[in-house]
Every structure is written in structure tokens, then in C-alpha cells.
Amino acid sequence: MLLCAWASAHLEKEPQVRTVLFATGTLFSYLFSAFLPIAAYPAAQAPHWHIGAKLYLGLSVFASVLFVSIFFILKWQAKRDKRKERAEHDDSSDL
Fold it and tell me: Which residues are listed as membrane-spanning (predicted)?
């Protein structure tokens, strides 16, 4: 949901991109929910699974790093856009 909120805020002028982003996000979420547990926790290895907890821990770490990276990228982009708007405003006021 955090990614959806960020996408809505930063892609407000791009409705087609936002729609594709939400649709692919939903698709991948459903695919992970449907097939990843089957691969991570095979019934033949129960109750001593070899990969399940490690896989989910790795995905959690990856998601955390991804969220932090996206946060700083969006923050940098907003700062860059403000500087660009300020420069355009200063250029137009000089005329």
C-alpha cells in the first residue's frame, strides 16, 4: 500500500502509468501469494523446511531496502523539481 500511495502522489499527471503500475503490482502480489508458499514450503520437507524462512527473510530485507531506496529517490526527485521550477520562475521574472 505504501508503494501505491507514493505512486499516486508522484504520478498524479500520468494516469495511464499509474494504472499499469497498480495492475502489475496486483498481478505480482497475487502470483507471489499463490505460488511462492508452494515452492518455499514443500510438503515433502514438512515440518523441517530448508528454504522457507530464509527465502521470506531475504524477501523482507530486499523489500525494506527497496522501500528506503524509493523513498530517497522520490525525495531527491522532488527537490530537483522544486529547483527546476524555481529556476524557470526566476528566468520568467527576469524578462
Answer: 20-43, 55-74
| Closest CA relative to residue 6, chosen from 62, 64, 70 | 70
Helix (H, G, I), strand (E, B) or coil at 13: coil
Tens digits of residue pLDDT in 50-85: 888 898 899 999 989 998 998 899 899 889 988 988
Question: Interhelix angle for 52-94 vs 2-10, to 10°?
Answer: 20
Please report where in the chains the cell 508452494 appears, as a residue: 38
Summarize the confidence of residues 32-47 as an average pLDDT: 87
The whole-model pTM stands at 0.70
Which amino acid does the sequence have at 40? A
- Using CA atoms, how far residue 89 sits from 38, 41, 77, in Å, is 56, 58, 18
- Rounded to whole angstroms, the maximal C-alpha distance in the chain is 76
- Given a contact cutoff of 8 angstroms between Cβ atoms, the answer to whether 40 and 49 are in contact is yes
Predicted pLDDT of residue 48: 84
